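Section 5.1 Outputs to date
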Amino acid sequence: MEWIELQVLSGTTWDERRIEVKSGTTASDVASHLGLGQREGLVAVRHNGELMDLGRSLDHGGELHWITADSPAGLEILRHSTAHLLAHAVMRLWPEVRLAVGPAIEHGFYYDFDFGTDRAISDRDLERIEAEMHAIAAQDLLIERDEMPLAKAQALFQNVEALFKLELLADLAAQDALDPQDPQEHQGLQDPQEHQDPQEPQDPKEQRMVSV
């Protein structure tokens, strides 16, 4: 087993240090080895500049910089994760709902849902959604990263009729077919979430939760 050297950069309450670990060790394992974890508010890590979740394997040496919940990057990660939690709760309550996008934004996060032509969300529904989010969070479910070829992802979302996700994948496929060195060819192909105004009026049957 190959050993790799990591320079663990200083955080708010611990010192910079150099360590050797086996290739394939996860960032979470490194944190545990150093006695770090939830107490320090670790939520992610940058490995040689690449933002990674704590469960990713470290296959080569270099710099390891912890991301904490009280940092701008950490707060964005928590908001994005909470958007996924929101989607999970809504899907439990309304399995027929269609998901669009759910990014973090400056003051929170949102998620676009399509509930169909004859469904609107009430204040009571919002209370149910919040309660379901708390119930799911209490389960402490394992979140795993799953990378797959574009064609497999398309087949996955086709199987569950996730039409909005398929549209996003089609945009990705179109981007891959263009010259990445020509910015003119990419105009209009960015992720739609980058251009949506959180205050933009929505169809009354499409509800957006801006802040929870």
